[in-house]
Amino acid sequence: MNDTNEPTLDDLVGDWSTLPDVAEALDLEIRRVRGLVADRHLVGVKRGERTTFQVPTAFLVTTDEGTRVLETLRGTATVLQDAGFDDAEALRWLFTEQESLGTTPIAAMRAGRRAEVRRLAQALA
């Protein structure tokens, strides 16, 4: 990023979770969480002082039944990967407001607007 006015990924995402934090939230073993990352159910980057792998906390949804991974993330992450986005670029896109959505793609997905987000992501290819 050469444009110093462009927000950093940390500015866009806000809250991050380490894999052990995700494992605790989902009540899973850490190896299962690593599997979720490998299978693109979760997307993250190495960041922070100790460059640990972290995922945006917004990818976790808490309901009365407990905490789970946002179900629509995997398909959208795959569309972005197919469009040539690396994980950092995909995160930047997911957390940057898109005029046609009137919000960020991640907020739209959390609100159940998967189809709109996917159409927009597919147009990037």
UniProtKB/TrEMBL annotation:
Q: Which domain of life is it from?
A: Bacteria
Question: Which residue intervals define the domain DNA-binding protein Rv2175c wHTH in the entry?
Answer: 15-60
**What is a single molecular function from GO for this protein?**
DNA binding
Annotated Rv2175c C-terminal domain ranges read 71-125
| Keyword annotations of the record | DNA-binding
**Protein's name in the database:** DNA-binding protein
What is the originating organism of this protein?
Isoptericola dokdonensis DS-3
